[in-house]
Amino acid sequence: MARYIGPKSKIARKFGEPIYGPDKYLEKKNYPPGQHGINRRKKTSEYGIQLREKQKAKYTYGVLERQFRNIFEKANRSKGITGEVLLGLLESRLDNVVFRLGIAPTRAAARQLVSHRHITVDGSVVNIPSYTLKAGQLIGVREKSKSLEVITAALSSSSAHRYSWLEWDNHTMVGKFLNIPERSEIPENIKEQSIVELYSK
Question: What 8-state DSSP symbol labels residue 103?
C-alpha cells in the first residue's frame, strides 16, 4: 500500500506543528524548511490556506490523495456536518485507533503492526490499516504478539492516550471502539471546514 515515506521533520516544519509527534528538529528550527524558510513572509491566499489544511490532514492520518478524496466523498454523502464527519471517519480507521489506544507510539508504527498481522478485530486478525471500525467492535493484540517490545513499551508510556470514545483493558490487551468521536473529542489542530470549502470549488 502506498504511503508517505519522506522526511517527517521537514513536513512538521512546513506546518509548524509536531504532526508526527514530538520532534527535536521542530523545536530547534520552528520555521519552514529551505534556504529562505526563516525569512519567508509571503501572504498565503485563501486557496493556499485550504490546501494547507487538506495536506495537514493527509499527513497526520497517513492517507494519500485518492484515498482521502474517497473518504471525503463518503463524508459528504453522510448525514451531519461534512467536515466533522470526515474527521470522524479518519479517526475510525483501524491504524488510528491502534495508535489512540496506545498500542503503538505513532500512527506509522500502528499501520505496521496492523499490516504485519499483530492486531485483531473481534478476535480475528485484520491486516488492513484503513479498515473502518464500527461501534462496539473489540480491538486487541494477537496472543503471539503480546510480548513484542514495541507494544509493551508503547503501552507502558501511553497514559495520555486515553479517550472517552475508547475503552482499554491493559490485562487482556483488548480495547473497545465505543463510538465515532465528536469533533470536541478529537485533539488534532485541523480546520476541517477549509477542506470542505476546497473540495466544494
Answer: S
Same domain, yes or no: 158 and 121: yes
Does residue 95 surpass a pLDDT of 50? yes
C-alpha 127/C-alpha 170 separation (Å) is: 22
Contacts of 3 by beta carbon, 8 Å cutoff, 6+ apart: 62, 64, 108, 111
Interstrand relation of 166-169 and 174-177 (parallel, antiparallel or unpaired): antiparallel
pLDDT for 19 beyond 50: yes
Asked if 68 and 93 count as a contact pair (C-beta separation under 8 A), the reply is no
Closest CA to 55 of 42, 68, 44: 68
In this structure, the chain runs to a length of: 201
* Residue 192, C-alpha cell as written in the block: 476541517
Contacts of 83 (CB under 8 A, 6+ apart): 75, 192, 193, 195, 196
The cell for 135 is: 461501534
- Residue ending a domain, among 40, 67, 89, is 89
